[in-house]
Structure of DUF465 domain-containing protein:
Amino acid sequence: MSNTPHDIYEDFPGDAEKIHMLKASDAHFARILEEYHEINRDVHRAETKVEPVEQLAEVEMRKKRAALKDELARMLAKA
C-alpha cells in the first residue's frame, strides 16, 4: 500500500490541458474531480495515520477513489 497521494494530474500526465478545460467547461466533470480530490485526501490521511479509520472504511474509500478515477478517465477519453 502506497502512502503517496494519487494526484489526478500525475495519473494522467498527458491530459493536464484537457483536465483544465473540462474542469472549466463541464460542471459534471468539475464535480467528479472535486469529489476525487476530497476522497483522495481522505485516503492519504487515513494511510498516513493522520486521521486513522477502520481498515474496512479505508478499503471502501480506496474503492470509491478508483471508481471516480475510472469515471474521470472515461470522460477524458471522450473529450
